[in-house]
C-alpha cells in the first residue's frame, strides 16, 4: 500500500486541473483511503473500500472518476448511489467543486423530497454525473427519464447504510440495469454478509482497501454542543462569544450568504468580525486571515471551502453554527483549534433532526460531545457590566479628555445636578437606544419553557410494550388499535398513529416505509415507531407535532409506485376500500386511481392470497423507497 504521509496528490497520477483545485482547497496530503483508492480507480479497476465516515472517501472516488469522464459526451457516464439526500447533495457539490477546472463536466443530484420537474430539466441537459438515492434513481429509470446505457462507472457510497435503510434490493436492481462492462467502486464502513454478496456479484476482481479507524480529533480539544431552541442562533452565538474566554474564534456556516449575515450581526454587536467565502476576492481573504493572525480581528465566519488550509494558532474556539453534512468536514473544522499543543474549544449547534449526525460524529471521532447550556441572561449581563466598566476605565485620559471636561464643567455650573448623573447621561449617549442588558425574567421563562418541551412532557398512558421485531404473534386482529404504541427507548416522545395508502399488495416492506419517511421527513429512523403492513394500507407511528410542510411532503412521497397519502389513523371507519381493476397498462399491470406508476401485475392469484400483518423489525428486504 502507498504511504500517504510520504507522497502528495501529484504522485497519484492526477492531472493538472485536478491538482489545481486541490491546491485551491488546501488539500496537501492524501488520506489513506485516497492514496490507496485513486491509482486503481484511475486505471479502471474495481475497488472495494472499507473505511469509516470522515476518512475522505468522496475525494477518493470522485477525483479519479472525474478524470475518466469524457466531457464531449453529454450522457450519464458515472452513477453514484447514496443512502440519503443529504449525502447525495454533498457528493454532487464535491464533484462540482473538484471539476471546476475541467470544462464541460456537468453533475446533477436526484433524490426524494425534490420535485421531478427540476430533476427532469437537469437530466435533459445531459449530465455526465448523476448522484442519487436508490428510490429516486429507480423511479427515473422506470419512467425512462434516466438511461444507464453509457454508464462507465457506478459508485456505492456508504453501502452498509443503504443496507440498514432497506435499499439493498434497489441497489442490486439498479446495478442489473447498468452495462455488464462497467467499473464499480463500493465503499462501506462495515462489511456485513449482504454487502459481501453485492461485492461478489457485481465487482470484478476488486482492489481491496481497508483503512483502520482511529480517533481523528485532537484530545486537547473540548467538544460541546448546544441544542438549538428558545433563541435564534445569532443571539446564542453572541451570548457564547460574550461569556467564553477566547483569543480568536472561527465560525463555520453552510452558505456564502450566511457568512455575510452572521459577520454583519457580530460586527454590529461590537466584535471585530469578517466573512470568508469563495465569492470574496483572494487578496481580500488573505488580508482577513492576516488580520486574524495579528490580533486585529476577533473572529472569522467561513464556509468549509473558504477555510481549507487555514492555519492560525491563536484560534481558541471553533463554532459550528451549522452542523456539517459529514464527519470529515467536522474533523477539518475543529482542527483549526488546539494547534501547537494548546487547548481548544469546539462547539456545535444541533437541531432536533440533526442529532443523528451528532452521534455519527461521536462514533467517528471516538470522543463524547457534551451538551452545554446556553449562557443565561444573568451571566451575559454580568459580563456586559464588566466590559462597560472596562471601557470607561480605559477611556480615563486627562489630556485626551480635556475638551470634554470643560463641557461637563459648564453643564455642572449651569445646572444644579450631581456629577454622577452627568456621567450616567454620557454613558447613556454612548450606549444609544440599544439595551445594555438582557431581560433576565423573560430569559428565565424562555429557558423554563424550553426545558418543559424537552424533559417534562406529560406522561402518556402506560401500556404493556410489545416487541416490534416479534413476528410470532399472529392471532391479533387485522385492524390495529387507534392508540400508538410507546416508542422504544424514547419515553418522552409522544406518538401519533398514521395510515398510509400503500400495503402488501403493492409490495411494501418495512424497510421501504422506514427509508421513505426518514428521507422525505428528514427524520431519524429511531423516531419511527410501530409499523403494521396490511393488504392495501399500512399503519405507522410518528412523533407528534410534525410540521405541516413535512406532512405535505410525505403525502406526495411515492413508495412502490404509489403516493403515501399519509393521514392520521381514525380506526376502521377511515380505512380506504381499494377496488380492483382500473385502466390496464400496456405491460399487463394496472393503474388504480391516483397511481401512475404501479410496479406489480394485477394478478388475481397474487391478490387473493391472504396476507398477515407485517411488523417493522423483520428480515424482509426492501424493494423501493426514496
From TrEMBL:
It catalyses: ATP + H2O = ADP + phosphate + H(+). It is found in: Cytoplasm. One of its GO terms (biological process) is RNA catabolic process. The keyword Nucleotide-binding applies. Residues 233-380 form the Helicase C-terminal domain. Its EC number is 3.6.4.13. The keyword RNA-binding applies. A motif (Q motif) lies at residues 7-35. GO terms for cellular component: cytosol. It comes from the Bacteria. It is an enzyme of class 3 (hydrolase). Keywords: ATP-binding, Cytoplasm, Helicase, Hydrolase, Nucleotide-binding, RNA-binding, Stress response. One of its GO terms (molecular function) is RNA binding. Residues 38-209 form the Helicase ATP-binding domain. Residues 7-35 form the DEAD-box RNA helicase Q domain. InterPro entries: CsdA_RRM (IPR034415), DbpA/CsdA_RNA-bd_dom (IPR005580), DEAD/DEAH_box_helicase_dom (IPR011545), DEAD/DEAH_RhlB (IPR044742), DEAD_box_RNA_helicase (IPR050079), DeaD_dimer (IPR057325), DEAD_helicase_DeaD (IPR028618), Helicase_ATP-bd (IPR014001). Residues 453-473, 571-608 have a biased composition (Basic and acidic residues). Belongs to the DEAD box helicase family. DeaD/CsdA subfamily. This is ATP-dependent RNA helicase DeaD. It comes from Thalassolituus maritimus.
Amino acid at each position: 500500500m502507498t504511504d500517504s504521509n510520504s507522497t502528495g496528490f501529484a504522485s497519484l497520477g492526477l492531472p493538472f486541473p485536478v491538482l489545481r483545485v486541490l491546491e485551491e482547497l488546501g488539500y496537501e496530503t492524501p488520506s489513506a483511503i485516497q492514496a490507496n483508492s485513486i491509482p486503481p480507480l484511475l486505471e479502471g479497476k474495481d475497488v472495494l473500500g472499507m473505511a469509516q465516515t470522515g476518512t475522505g472517501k468522496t475525494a477518493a472516488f470522485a477525483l479519479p472518476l472525474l478524470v475518466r469522464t469524457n466531457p464531449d459526451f453529454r450522457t450519464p457516464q458515472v452513477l453514484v448511489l447514496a443512502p440519503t439526500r443529504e449525502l447525495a447533495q454533498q457528493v454532487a457539490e464535491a464533484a462540482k467543486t473538484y471539476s471546476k477546472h475541467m470544462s464541460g463536466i456537468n453533475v446533477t443530484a436526484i433524490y426524494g423530497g425534490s420535485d421531478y420537474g427540476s430533476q427532469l430539466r437537469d437530466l435533459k441537459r445531459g449530465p455526465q454525473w448523476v448522484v442519487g438515492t436508490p428510490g429516486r434513481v429507480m423511479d427515473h429509470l422506470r419512467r425512462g427519464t434516466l438511461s444507464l446505457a453509457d454508464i462507465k462507472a457506478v459508485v456505492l457510497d456508504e453501502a452498509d447504510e443503504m443496507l440498514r435503510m432497506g435499499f439493498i434490493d434497489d441497489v442490486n436492481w439498479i446495478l442489473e440495469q447498468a452495462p455488464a462492462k462497467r467499473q464499480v467502486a463500493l465503499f462501506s464502513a462495515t462489511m456485513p454478509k449482504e454487502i459481501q454478496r453485492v461485492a461478489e456479484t457485481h465487482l470484478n476482481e476488486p482492489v481491496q482497501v481497508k483503512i483502520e479507524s482511529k480517533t481523528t480529533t485532537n484530545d486537547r480539544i473540548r467538544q460541546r454542543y448546544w441544542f438549538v431552541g428558545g433563541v435564534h442562533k445569532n443571539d446564542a452565538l453572541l451570548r457564547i462569544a460574550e461569556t467564553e474566554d477566547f483569543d480568536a474564534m472561527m465560525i463555520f456556516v453552510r452558505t456564502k450568504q450566511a457568512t455575510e449575515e452572521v459577520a454583519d450581526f457580530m460586527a454590529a454587536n461590537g466584535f471585530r468580525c469578517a466573512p470568508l467565502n469563495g465569492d470574496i476576492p483572494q487578496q481580500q481573504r488573505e488580508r482577513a486571515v492576516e488580520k486574524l493572525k495579528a490580533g486585529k480581528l476577533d473572529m472569522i465566519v467561513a464556509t468549509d471551502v473558504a477555510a481549507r488550509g487555514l492555519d492560525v494558532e491563536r484560534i481558541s474556539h471553533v463554532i459550528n453554527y451549522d452542523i456539517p453534512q459529514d464527519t470529515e468536514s467536522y474533523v477539518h473544522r475543529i482542527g483549526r483549534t488546539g494547534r501547537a499543543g494548546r487547548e481548544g474549544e469546539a462547539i456545535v449547534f444541533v437541531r432536533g433532526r440533526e442529532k443523528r449526525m451528532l452521534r455519527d460524529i461521536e462514533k467517528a471521532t471516538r470522543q463524547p460531545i457534551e451538551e452545554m447550556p446556553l449562557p443565561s441572561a444573568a451571566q451575559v449581563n454580568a459580563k456586559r457590566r464588566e466590559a462597560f466598566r472596562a471601557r470607561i476605565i480605559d477611556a480615563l485620559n486627562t489630556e485626551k479628555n480635556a475638551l470634554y471636561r470643560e463641557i461637563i464643567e459648564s453643564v455642572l455650573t449651569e445646572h444644579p445636578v450631581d456629577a454622577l448623573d452627568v456621567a450616567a447621561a454620557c454613558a447613556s449617549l454612548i450606549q444609544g437606544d440599544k439595551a445594555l442588558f438582557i431581560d433576565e425574567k423573560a430569559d428565565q421563562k424562555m429557558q423554563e419553557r424550553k426545558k418543559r418541551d424537552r424533559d417534562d412532557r406529560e406522561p402518556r398512558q402506560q401500556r404493556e410494550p410489545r416487541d416490534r421485531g416479534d413476528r410470532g404473534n399472529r392471532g391479533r386482529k387485522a385492524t390495529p388499535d387507534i392508540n400508538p404504541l410507546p416508542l422504544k427507548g424514547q419515553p418522552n416522545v409522544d406518538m401519533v398513529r398514521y395510515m398510509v395508502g400503500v400495503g402488501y399488495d403493492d409490495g411494501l416492506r418495512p424497510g421501504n416505509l422506514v427509508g421513505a419517511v426518514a428521507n422525505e421527513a428528514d427524520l431519524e429512523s429511531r423516531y419511527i415507531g410501530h409499523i403494521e403492513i396490511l393488504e392495501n394500507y399500512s399503519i405507522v407511528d410518528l412523533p407528534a407535532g410534525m410540521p405541516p410542510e413535512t406532512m405535505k411532503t410525505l403525502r406526495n412521497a411515492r413508495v412502490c409506485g404509489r403516493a403515501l397519502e399519509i393521514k392520521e389513523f381514525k380506526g376502521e371507519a377511515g380505512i380506504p376500500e381499494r377496488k380492483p381493476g382500473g385502466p390496464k397498462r400496456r405491460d399487463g399491470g394496472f393503474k388504480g386511481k391516483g397511481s401512475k406508476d404501479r410496479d406489480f401485475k394485477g394478478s388475481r392469484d397474487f391478490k387473493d392470497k391472504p396476507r398477515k400483518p407485517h411488523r417493522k423489525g423483520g428480515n424482509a428486504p426492501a424493494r423501493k423507497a426514496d
